[in-house]
Amino acid sequence: MTDNEATGAVDHLLTDRVSAVIDRSAYGDWRSIATEDAVSLSYGFPDPALFPGEQLTDAVATVLQEQGDEVLQYGTDSYADHLEDVVEERERDRNIPFDHNDVLLTNGATHAIDTVCRVFLDPGDVILVEEPTFMGALGVFWNFGVEVVGVPVDDEGLDVDALAATLERRRERGEQSPKLLYTIPDFQNPTGTTLAGSRRERVLDLATEHDFVVLEDGAYSDLRFDGEGVPPLAAMDDSGRVVRVGTFSKTIAPGIRLGWLTAPSRIRNAARTVAAGGTNTFTRSIVGRYCAEGHLEDALPELRRAYARKRDRMLDSLTAQMPEGTTWTEPDGGFFVWVDLPEGIDADAMLEDAATRGVTYLPGSLFYSGEGPGNTLRLSYSFVTGDEIAQGIEALGTTVSERL
Amino acid sequence: MTDNEATGAVDHLLTDRVSAVIDRSAYGDWRSIATEDAVSLSYGFPDPALFPGEQLTDAVATVLQEQGDEVLQYGTDSYADHLEDVVEERERDRNIPFDHNDVLLTNGATHAIDTVCRVFLDPGDVILVEEPTFMGALGVFWNFGVEVVGVPVDDEGLDVDALAATLERRRERGEQSPKLLYTIPDFQNPTGTTLAGSRRERVLDLATEHDFVVLEDGAYSDLRFDGEGVPPLAAMDDSGRVVRVGTFSKTIAPGIRLGWLTAPSRIRNAARTVAAGGTNTFTRSIVGRYCAEGHLEDALPELRRAYARKRDRMLDSLTAQMPEGTTWTEPDGGFFVWVDLPEGIDADAMLEDAATRGVTYLPGSLFYSGEGPGNTLRLSYSFVTGDEIAQGIEALGTTVSERL
């Protein structure tokens, strides 16, 4: 259908918040940027060469043969439930306290984020996000008809002084208190930055003082290449204010659509009640089997090495190719590098030319709830080969240099 | 966790509607009825002996080998998208007009129902349901904080005169106009009844006159054993008011969690926007492959024969075992028989004794949004063998007879 399609008989029965987002279609916009001839540094997709196809095939054959009656049925307590134990054990290893927390499996991390929103958000509520932040999460938040308030990110992640100032200002003005802060503390999408440990403590203090929930997105937490790990907010929290979400999309495969949330038990129960239809027993069983055989833990070191090599290739290429006045982040893990172009260059306007020269990226403006700076862009090194990275960054360097 | 668990730090931040449902846990109640020693006529599960385990194993091996890079990745246009074509073709065969309708795949039918609710329902809205109706749908509706108004079902399905009277009465009183009617027209869960063709036309007329959406649940539509098929409401509708949902849970396997909705294009787009995280690419691909090889159409005749045999065994057993004054429905398809016990017998109170004697069922009260008649119960013949059905109905007959 086209944008001009006729409105239907029941369009006036849509909720106000759905009417507001149906024509916004942010996803459509950024998906359409891909071109066939250019190296795509746009997508935060994992490298398909790292998918464990054979091991998953074996896991499928085993679970269907040994317990097909259960894994193809409605809810089961065999391998499917075992996956909850796997997640719980891995979260315990991050020191998340399970005396008052529980795990809920979801259909990927975005479903987990959506479910947390359903538990806490009414239309008109206020939520805080990092700016820039994951645009998929922004899309979810918009669906709920809430006011999204951005707080800047710097090299050490969320700027907690700015967060405190925003909260204080809202309080002084008598504005509505935010219900939720969404943060990606490890190797943030899109900046690649990691929230410093002392800042995490400050975030938790502010959450208690201003009475909001912290929604911690740990999508990339398993993929640290360098440096010392920083404890998750959920492990530092003793007030029961943190809901943490995770996913197997980056470490096993996105196509299996399995994520989770870890939350204070009663919040987790509320999430289960509203999560709508349950998760896929079949893929839960397969991934449960895959993990039970130790394949995930075995794979992680190689995943980290492979993505670290790509990160290195991208950073080296940027150093070699980008003109003076361009800066970028240096991530310790994850999939992304954030680039600040020289003042006055518009990454949106430049994209078509860049694609012609052989590279695509996502303009930084996509990652802001409102207006963002025009001279930023996100690069992803995860999906492409090292040589493609070098080729793409060379094209990017040429495109930018011509604009100086 | 127990019901008495301490409330947490952020419980007061839950939305009002979530606070209202979190302790209701209807699912918990009916799940706990199962006992190990009794024949379970409780669950509307498909027969695991009919699961196509081998063909699914082959489909998995093929798709992972031929296109593992795509089917394990985020969104793909290979087998995964082919499944949308399969569904569209099957819906076209039911004469659903695709000039103004489109298909959206979902994580099962309950997810489809939930998504339709997200598109149309605000807290405080009014929806109409058949009484009795599918309790899983009731659970979804409660999550939205809406007022659920029941309309009775008789041997020909939804009582359309009662529907008209309810709508007229609400209008006269100046009460809020319902936004949505939820109906399961074919082999309804829980009564097994089918909505007569003339009644379907009346429902559509009333929808236009009173300006509401018809949510048609076709979960059992593929499983007609006897008699002539009645066209779906979505095929009879020319006003763009019907959203139809379907599922592969009854005809392939519930564990793969794949359903769909067919809706006017703009409603379908709204549904896609709010559906939260997308469907499972991996299982979409597997089921797409399974269907592309013709396995689903090949399997349907045998599924119908097998379930018809079980239905016959249950009806014969009821005739042989139940005391006078007990009546039941005679479904032309699907999984369920609805029993009216002699006046004064309480199916809830009787259940413990029935379980001791060797049979469990679901008391009819579970299928009502408010108070329902105490002397009804739902039997399912789908999950158990013919001999188990005979054994279970014998136990039921004894239990009821003792109460006369």
Unreliable stretches covering 5 or more consecutive residues of chain A: 1-6
User: Biggest β-sheet of chain A: count, sense, barrel?
Assistant: 8 strands, mixed
Q: Widest sheet of chain A: strand order?
A: 2-9-8-7-6-3-4-5
What structural category arises from helix and sheet content of chain A?
Answer: alpha/beta
Report, as a whole number of angstroms, the end-to-end distance of chain A: 41 Å
Order of helices and strands of chain A: HHEHHEHEHEEHEHEHEEHHHEEHEEEH
* Quaternary: homodimer
Task: Report mean pLDDT of chain A, rounded to a whole number.
Answer: 92
Strand content of chain A: 15-25%
C-alpha geometry of chain A: globular
Radius of gyration of chain A: 22 Å
Number of helices, where a helix is a run of at least 4 consecutive DSSP H or I residues of chain A: 14
Number of strands of chain A: 14
- Helix percent of chain A reads 40-55%
Largest interface chains and counts: A-B, 84 and 85 residues
Q: Mind explaining what this structure looks like?
A:
Two copies of one chain form a homodimer. By secondary structure, chain A is an alpha/beta fold. The first copy, chain A, has 14 helices and 14 strands. Chain A has helices spanning 16-21, 26-31, 53-71, 79-93, 109-120, 135-143, 160-172, 197-210, 233-236, 265-274, 281-292, 295-321, 347-357, 386-401, and strands spanning 39-40, 101-106, 126-131, 147-154, 157-158, 180-183, 213-217, 242-247, 259-264, 327-328, 336-340, 359-360, 362-363, 376-380. An eight-stranded mixed beta sheet of chain A has the order 2-9-8-7-6-3-4-5, with helices on both faces. In chain A, strands 10-11-14-13 form a four-stranded antiparallel beta sheet. In chain A, strands 1-12 form a two-stranded parallel sheet. In chain A, helix 8 links the parallel strand 6 and strand 7 (213-217). In chain A, helix 4 crosses helix 11, helix 5 (109-120) packs across helix 10 and helix 7 (160-172) packs parallel to helix 8 (197-210).
